[in-house]
TrEMBL record:
Coiled coil, from the record: none
InterPro entries the UniProt entry points to: Enolase-like_C_sf, Enolase_C-like
Domain Enolase C-terminal: 17-76
Molecular-function GO term, any one: metal ion binding
SUPFAM superfamilies according to UniProt: Enolase C-terminal domain-like
Protein's name in the database: Enolase C-terminal domain-containing protein
Pfam families: MR_MLE_C
Keywords: Metal-binding
């Protein structure tokens, strides 16, 4: 999979980068997230405006708790990012089967999720 990476930046800078990558033909964007939940959501919304059809790879390097990972996914689906497709890489320390159950129920038929987790169980 060929993608471009967007580091942790402001929403306006993320919009600028996403616009540039969109014009260059990149359909997948990998975003570093996990430092600030609300800032991450604003950045993702800005990117969605610049590149409405892009696929996200969100890489939090385990920066979210399980509850924060759930929050970010709920907020994205509820605030104009309902067509979210993405891979969630190391969103949190996934030691909670509840988190996986919640993901499969909440996002069933709404989005396509791949979860990369080294810390399951």
């Amino acid at each position: 999979m060929l993608y471009m990476q967007i580091p942790i930046v402001s929403p306006s800078k993320a919009f600028e980068l996403a616009s540039m990558y969109y014009k260059q033909g990149f359909n997948t964007l990998k975003l570093k997230v996990g430092k600030n939940l609300n800032a991450d959501i604003e950045v993702l919304k800005a990117i969605r405006l610049a590149h409405p059809d892009c696929m996200f790879i969100l890489d939090a390097n385990e920066g979210y708790t399980a509850n924060e990972a759930i929050q970010v996914l709920e907020k994205l689906c509820g605030k104009g990012v309902s067509a979210l497709y993405g891979m969630y890489e190391h969103l949190c320390m996934l030691r909670f089967r509840d988190f996986l159950s919640w993901l499969s129920e909440t996002f069933k038929n709404k989005t396509e999720l791949w979860i990369h987790c080294l810390h399951l169980l």
